[in-house]
Amino acid sequence: MKFKTLFVITSILFGSSVNAGWSSGGGELLRDTRNPWFLSNTDTVKYCVKVDQPNFSLSEQQILNKVARAFEYWKREFTFANRIDYTGFDSRLATQDFVLSDCDSADIKFQFGYLEEEQFEYLKNPKKFVGVAVRTSYDRVHLRGKGFIYVSPDRGPLKPDFQYMNEGIWSTFDGNLLKLAVIHELGHVFGISHDTSSLVMAEDFLQSVLGWFGHQGKSKHAESSMELNYFRSAAENQVSDLGFCVMPQPAQDVQMPVIASKSAALIAKRFFGIPTSVDNLMCVYFEFKGGKLRVYYGESSEGSSSSVDVTKLSLAGQMQLGNRLKGIVSLGSTISVYVNEAQKVIPAHMISSDQVYLAYKSSNYVYKGAYVAEGSGKRRPLAVTVTSDGIQSLTGVLDGQLYVDLPSGE
Ligand SMILES: [Zn+2]
After folding, report:
1. CA of 355 to the centre of ligand 1 (A)
2. Is 45 helix (H, G, I), strand (E, B) or coil?
3. Is the pLDDT of residue 120 over 90?
4. Same domain (yes/no): 270, 136
5. Which of residues 70 and 223 earns the better pLDDT score?
6. 120 CA distance to ligand 1 middle (Å)
7. In a designed cystine with 222, which of 72, 114, 257, 328 is the match (CB 3.0 to 4.6 A)?
8. Nearest-angstrom CA–CA distance, 54 and 41
9. Are 373 and 356 part of one and the same domain?
10. Separation of 191 CA from ligand 1 center, angstroms?
11. Structural domain boundaries, residue 385
């Protein structure tokens, strides 16, 4: 990631004596503070939403929608990841019913620009955060947590000073930046620590997102544009379909990264059957969904306003669909649950130490088939390697020659 951490999202917060049981996001020293807030014994989780509407550019209804989508994201994420069972204990993360309720009985309070006095004191300087998840109590018998997720407002005195935290930023991109913020914080609720190998659970994820979106139209740097499109894809829930570069939205003005070289462009054109009338092929975007590969391509002129021509080609032929695709977090890291003698959730015989590891792993899948270009009807052998981060490689045969990485022409 290009942008350095300019300020912390979820830093180590040491509770004052007033709220000694509180803990937040990443990096605590206390043993069970990273436990998932809910395990298999919890069927229903209540949540509420509070918004400081004058200082928040999205309406409560829009926010409720984004929160619901963030829950869906994690449900899907955990469903698609392979669970590696060390214990025989059915951890069932994010399988609960998440039910909207009043804040008095809520397990998770989502607070958008809104803080109670004691929360304010605990965070000390809320302007340091784009978002933060704070667990305020933990039931050590039933291994069940309660707490709040705070997301900073995009107007008013509590708006962070971070350079890309522009006024009204939450309402840009259909409010999907906010969804990404909630996704990150919910990841902590489900017990995931910061993880540099992951996109959404990287420590600087939120400011990276803000940075790249805030940078839009200003940067002529291909790499940041690529990242922007990556995040845009994520924001639009095309998380399983991430390609290498250009966005699938022809209406938007975006600087597109150039394809690796002229010769690579030529190979891509021929392989994918991109019309020869496309003189200035700048970018090829691949979407892979349900075993089907779609190729979009774009032509770009000089300057910051690019015209993008998007054409759809389809992949025909038989694909081996071994597994479903997964989202953008790489659940390679282990989620640990510290247990104690009083707990009644994890059977004693499954516990060899005071810690139980719940591992969710995503892996590579190779899909094989033949690419049939529209128009010419030529069939070309193609293998698509996919991980949780999207397409990893496209390997194909063109005129008897094997290309290990088609987009780079190698
Ligand atoms: Zn975090």
Report:
1. 22
2. strand
3. yes
4. no
5. 70
6. 18
7. 257
8. 39
9. no
10. 11
11. 242-324+364-408
The number of domains in the chain is: 2
How far apart CA 170 and CA 175 sit, in angstroms, is: 5
Distance, CA 343 to ligand 1 centroid (Å)?
Answer: 27
**Mean pLDDT for the chain overall:** 72
Predicted TM-score (pTM) of this structure: 0.68
pLDDT tens digits for range 370-396? 777 666 677 787 777 665 455 667 788
- Cβ count near 44 (within 10 Å): 11
Which of the residue ranges 55-59, 82-86, 92-96 would you say has the lowest mean pLDDT?
82-86
Q: Using the mean position of ligand 1's atoms as its centre, give its distance from the Cα of residue 10 in Å.
A: 5
CA of 275 relative to ligand 1 center, distance in Å: 45
What distance in angstroms lies between residue 24's CA and the mean position of ligand 1's atoms? 9
For residue 249, being part of any structural domain is answered with yes
pLDDT at 300: 53
> pLDDT tens digits, residue range 192-210?
888 766 667 878 888 777 7
Look at residue 237 and tell me if it is in a domain: no
pLDDT digits (tens, 9 = 90+) for 301-339: 332 223 334 444 444 433 333 333 333 444 555 788 899
Exposure b/e, 340-378, CB count within 10 A at least 16 = b = eeebebbeeeeeeeeebebbbebeebebebbbbbeeeee
The answer to whether residue 233 is domain-embedded is no
Q: Are residues 273 and 402 in the same domain?
A: yes
Rounded to an integer, what distance in angstroms lies between the CA atom of residue 386 and that of residue 383?
10
**Do 32 and 116 belong to one domain?**
yes
